[in-house]
Queue: 4 jobs
Job 1
Amino acid sequence: MALSRKVSTSLFQPIVTPILESRPLCLTLTGAALMQSALVAFNKPGWICPTREYLGCPCPGCGLTRAVAALFSGDLQTMMAYHALAPFFVIGFSFVVAAAVLPHHQRQRLITAVDWSERRSGIATIFLITLFCYWFVRLVIFNQAYFNLIF
């Protein structure tokens, strides 16, 4: 009983809330995402994935910038090819952007709501588990197609 309780409480620990609580971190992440998006939008090379560069293996987020660009341009087929979880990243990242720019009172309400949601549902942990399962399937089962797409 104690082990199952410990597992369930760790599943419901906030992951996004601590990020949202730091306005400087939210501003930095927003700026970095805008810079990367602008580079990709203007067909310039974006930042190189360190995992791909140094380990020769795509990371769980490889292809995400191109997938988001395809999503925003309405090309869902290309988005799905690059990264099927792109819409969820956009939704999640919108909380980071909101926490970066909202006035203090609204920002606190957002943080409280996200914290409540994470503690009740474990949504961030579930998303991370899904992300790593998706990455593993692409890496192991669809290896050649995945590497051709990313490299």
Job 2
Amino acid sequence: MLFHIRCKDKPSQMNMRASTRAAHLNYIANFGDAVFFAGPTSIDDGETITGSVFIIQFDDKAAAEEFSKGDPYRKMGLFESVEIEQIRKVIPTDD
């Protein structure tokens, strides 16, 4: 199953994000091909980070939640909110 995880940062937490970034990236790398996409969101300036987005594949929502709970960003309290939804890929088609 595919899941979309949308994490919104707490305001004014760029220092926490920066100090935890290496641990966050190492954690995500451990999941290999289960992570289809991971990256930050930002305001229009492209520099001011507002959160994170993931597209991941796990057997069920419980596994997606465990993945999210293990993220160093989440463990350190960076996120104001975390939303996890199952998604279905329609385009492009896998022919």
Job 3
Amino acid sequence: MSSSVRSAEQRIRDVLELFAIEEDAWVASASADGNAHLVPLSFHWTGQAFIMALPGKSVTARNLRRAGWARIAIGPTRDVAIVEGPVEISAPPDDDPIWDAHAESCGFDARQPTGFYSLISLTPDQIQAWRNPDELQDRQIMRSGSWVARIPDQRSA
């Protein structure tokens, strides 16, 4: 086990790289009576938000629509980012460019079958990141939508 602890600036750079290269996230939600639900969804990172397609009538869609908030996990256990934030669920018109961006990132066109999929947009409000137990104490790298440190080459989020 490595005892190397990254700076907040390095974790932010690493997380932004993770968002750019990863394709899938685990999306957690809960019903109004507290029943937990967890699903993997492919995502498109815009630099400001995660865009994910899911069946509009699914359990996850119902849970997220009700809560207006989501928690997702990206990356493997030993290099994970946990992201929380408000969500919006929409069904943009088929000619909206977000569908093309999602299709390119995720490898499938969620416009088909027509009307089946909705898009979730999750804007990060809180982000935690760690690679080993030594990084757990300072794992919070975003609070209330702001990074805890500024990095010189920061261009997104």
Job 4
Amino acid sequence: MGSSPVPGTIPPPERDLMQDPNRQLVDAQTLKGYRDILPEEMIFQNALIERVRRVLERYGFVPLDTPCVELLATLTGAGGEETDKDIIRFKSREGEDAGLRFDLTVPFARLLAQYPEQLRLPIRRYQLAPVFRNDKPGEGRYRQFRQFDFDAAGSESVAVDAEIVALMCDVFREAGVESGEFEVRVNNRKILTAIMSAAGIDDFETQKRVLRAIDKLLKIGEKNVRLELGPGRTDDSGDTIRGAGLPEESIGKILGLILTTAPTRAAVVDALAAGLPRTETAEQVIEEMRELDRCLSGMGIAEGDAVFYPSLARGLDYYTGPIFEAFLKEAPEIGAVFGGGRYDNLVDRFLEKKIPATGASFGLDRFTAAFKRLGKTSVSPTVTQVMVMSFPGVPAAHLLKVASLLRAEDIRTELYLGAPGAKLRDQLAAANFRHIPVAVIVGPDEYAANQVSVKDLRAGLSARAGIQDHEAFRKAGKAAQQTVGLGELLSTVKSLSS
């Protein structure tokens, strides 16, 4: 019988797992379609999030959050048949049918119905959270990704739709994308309805097939869309895609209208007005588009930043009015980095009354992938401003005191705690590798004199660039270093960080 451990101590393990002959290593890998985000990209994303947050709050949007798990009944049917297939489903511990949310708009619609007193209309909200889709992964496309969603509920005004478009433009500019480098494409779901009516297409199932073909125009081109509207086609993989079976006259009418282009938004609307029959639906949507153009022009949104695209067809199962997609012109292969529209009928899945709403969202991972393609993600791989390092013989308590003096002034400071007895050159190499700009060095002499050495690592690297002579290299590095008393530490570091 073994002896009992001394109270207050942790008993030693019965065996060393590292020496276990039956121990098997687990492969360090992620599931397909999921990914880790390492510090450099996370730092870029956090900076982007802060910029987007500032823009949203400038427009009066407030933050909220919802669970990533919803009752399955909340999710199914909201995004259409294709979206339903991509829902990751499971049973809760209580046996309830549940699923991981595929977007943030559907949970917002539930909130509006569930909290009518707390979320008084009209309301503007934003949310950043992970969403999940069990679809095919690709570049910038994952099964889990963080989505930034912003919506305005409680108003039918076209002015709110215009603000969503303007907000997207402002987010691009705040993120460092200039006018001319991005394009927000705008259409109206009712335009598509009016176009199909002009082509004599009244059957609902045929309309859905036509809209799905139009939605693929950018991906497959006019020739293949024409085939999908007519007899059908065989795609690159050899699969047969059933056509809508439209006569050539109807196909010509549809393509002639959806491919309408003009130098200005107003001119696009004029061209559509001339080509559409004078029905009540057509006249109503033409006036909505004219009003949207007037609102965008009133906010100074350039013609090239927000463009009317009659071929834009997205979210066909729940968008009811204006629809939006935004692209980075130099990264078209990434696809749309923003998407959204008006969804006046989504909340009535939960209520007996209509709550109009409009909004947009972007996937943070796809946005980042596009920025990488443009070379706009150059940021420091660390948030640390100062690294405190030392020679042997300096007490850890003193190093912590030095670090605390800096942290008390909101200077982001890290104490080097790598391998015990690490040489100073290794500590400096670690700081340079992570682009930390300032090193505070404490040796036995500095400790005894209540001093520190402050080294401007950026200046040191710059001064030594191209120097081949060892002595000259050493002196150049020394020139960027100064020894000061602890009382001068803060002012010295601040002068180097400014």
